[in-house]
Write a structure and sequence with these properties.
mainly alpha
Protein backbone atom coordinates (compact mmCIF):
# COMPACT_ATOMS: atom_id res chain seq x y z
CA UNK A 1 0.00 0.00 0.00
CA UNK A 2 1.31 3.46 -0.86
CA UNK A 3 -0.17 5.70 1.79
CA UNK A 4 2.47 8.41 1.25
CA UNK A 5 1.45 9.09 -2.35
CA UNK A 6 -2.00 10.19 -1.19
CA UNK A 7 -0.73 13.03 1.00
CA UNK A 8 0.42 16.19 -0.72
CA UNK A 9 2.86 18.36 1.26
CA UNK A 10 0.03 20.78 2.10
CA UNK A 11 -2.07 18.16 3.90
CA UNK A 12 -3.20 19.34 7.34
CA UNK A 13 -2.45 17.43 10.53
CA UNK A 14 -6.15 16.57 10.76
CA UNK A 15 -6.11 15.38 7.15
CA UNK A 16 -3.16 13.13 7.90
CA UNK A 17 -5.01 11.57 10.83
CA UNK A 18 -8.16 10.98 8.79
CA UNK A 19 -6.13 9.50 5.93
CA UNK A 20 -4.29 7.20 8.33
CA UNK A 21 -7.54 5.87 9.78
CA UNK A 22 -8.82 5.25 6.25
CA UNK A 23 -5.62 3.59 4.98
CA UNK A 24 -5.22 1.43 8.08
CA UNK A 25 -8.85 0.32 7.87
CA UNK A 26 -8.30 -0.60 4.21
CA UNK A 27 -5.22 -2.62 5.18
CA UNK A 28 -7.10 -4.33 8.01
CA UNK A 29 -9.98 -5.30 5.73
CA UNK A 30 -7.63 -6.55 3.02
CA UNK A 31 -5.76 -8.76 5.47
CA UNK A 32 -9.00 -10.02 6.97
CA UNK A 33 -10.66 -10.88 3.65
CA UNK A 34 -7.52 -12.35 2.07
CA UNK A 35 -6.16 -14.29 5.07
CA UNK A 36 -8.92 -14.42 7.69
CA UNK A 37 -6.79 -12.54 10.23
CA UNK A 38 -7.00 -9.08 11.74
CA UNK A 39 -4.02 -6.76 11.86
CA UNK A 40 -3.13 -6.11 15.51
CA UNK A 41 -3.03 -2.58 16.88
CA UNK A 42 0.74 -2.96 17.36
CA UNK A 43 1.15 -3.93 13.70
CA UNK A 44 -1.07 -1.05 12.59
CA UNK A 45 0.83 1.40 14.79
CA UNK A 46 4.12 0.28 13.25
CA UNK A 47 2.69 0.40 9.74
CA UNK A 48 1.50 3.96 10.34
CA UNK A 49 5.01 4.95 11.44
CA UNK A 50 6.45 3.42 8.26
CA UNK A 51 3.97 5.25 6.03
CA UNK A 52 4.51 8.54 7.83
CA UNK A 53 8.28 8.15 7.61
CA UNK A 54 8.15 7.76 3.84
CA UNK A 55 6.55 11.18 3.56
CA UNK A 56 8.88 12.70 6.19
CA UNK A 57 6.07 13.02 8.73
CA UNK A 58 5.68 11.67 12.21
CA UNK A 59 3.15 11.32 14.99
CA UNK A 60 3.72 10.29 18.59
CA UNK A 61 3.28 6.59 19.26
CA UNK A 62 0.25 7.30 21.49
CA UNK A 63 -1.46 9.11 18.60
CA UNK A 64 -0.61 6.32 16.17
CA UNK A 65 -2.09 3.81 18.64
CA UNK A 66 -5.27 5.87 18.91
CA UNK A 67 -5.61 6.08 15.12
CA UNK A 68 -4.90 2.34 14.82
CA UNK A 69 -7.70 1.64 17.30
CA UNK A 70 -10.09 3.87 15.35
CA UNK A 71 -9.18 2.08 12.11
CA UNK A 72 -9.91 -1.24 13.81
CA UNK A 73 -13.29 0.06 14.95
CA UNK A 74 -14.16 1.11 11.38
CA UNK A 75 -12.90 -2.10 9.78
CA UNK A 76 -14.81 -4.33 12.18
CA UNK A 77 -17.90 -2.16 11.80
CA UNK A 78 -17.74 -2.67 8.03
CA UNK A 79 -17.05 -6.41 8.32
CA UNK A 80 -19.91 -6.87 10.75
CA UNK A 81 -22.47 -5.04 8.67
CA UNK A 82 -21.99 -6.36 5.12
CA UNK A 83 -21.72 -9.66 3.31
CA UNK A 84 -18.30 -11.11 2.47
CA UNK A 85 -18.72 -10.10 -1.17
CA UNK A 86 -19.61 -6.53 -0.22
CA UNK A 87 -16.68 -6.45 2.22
CA UNK A 88 -14.30 -7.57 -0.50
CA UNK A 89 -15.63 -4.85 -2.78
CA UNK A 90 -15.33 -2.19 -0.06
CA UNK A 91 -11.79 -3.29 0.75
CA UNK A 92 -10.81 -3.15 -2.91
CA UNK A 93 -12.45 0.24 -3.39
CA UNK A 94 -10.68 1.67 -0.33
CA UNK A 95 -7.31 0.48 -1.62
CA UNK A 96 -8.02 1.91 -5.07
CA UNK A 97 -8.98 5.22 -3.45
CA UNK A 98 -5.49 5.53 -1.97
CA UNK A 99 -4.53 6.63 -5.48
CA UNK A 100 -5.50 10.32 -5.66
CA UNK A 101 -6.54 9.85 -9.31
CA UNK A 102 -9.25 7.37 -8.33
CA UNK A 103 -12.63 8.97 -7.63
CA UNK A 104 -15.10 7.03 -5.52
CA UNK A 105 -18.33 8.01 -3.80
CA UNK A 106 -17.94 5.01 -1.49
CA UNK A 107 -14.44 6.11 -0.47
CA UNK A 108 -15.64 9.66 0.13
CA UNK A 109 -18.41 8.42 2.42
CA UNK A 110 -15.94 6.21 4.30
CA UNK A 111 -13.53 9.14 4.61
CA UNK A 112 -16.38 11.13 6.17
CA UNK A 113 -16.89 8.24 8.60
CA UNK A 114 -13.18 8.40 9.46
CA UNK A 115 -13.62 12.10 10.25
CA UNK A 116 -16.64 11.33 12.41
CA UNK A 117 -14.70 8.70 14.34
CA UNK A 118 -11.83 11.12 14.87
CA UNK A 119 -14.26 13.71 16.22
CA UNK A 120 -16.21 11.41 18.54
CA UNK A 121 -16.24 12.58 22.15
CA UNK A 122 -13.73 10.62 24.13
CA UNK A 123 -11.69 9.94 21.03
CA UNK A 124 -9.81 13.24 21.00
Amino acid sequence: MSFDRTLPPTTTERGIRVALIFALAAERLTLYYEHGKWLTDAQATSLAADWLGRSKRQLAVEERRRLAALSDKLARQIEGSVSREAGLFISHEMNEALDPNHQSELALSLMAECERLLDEPGEA
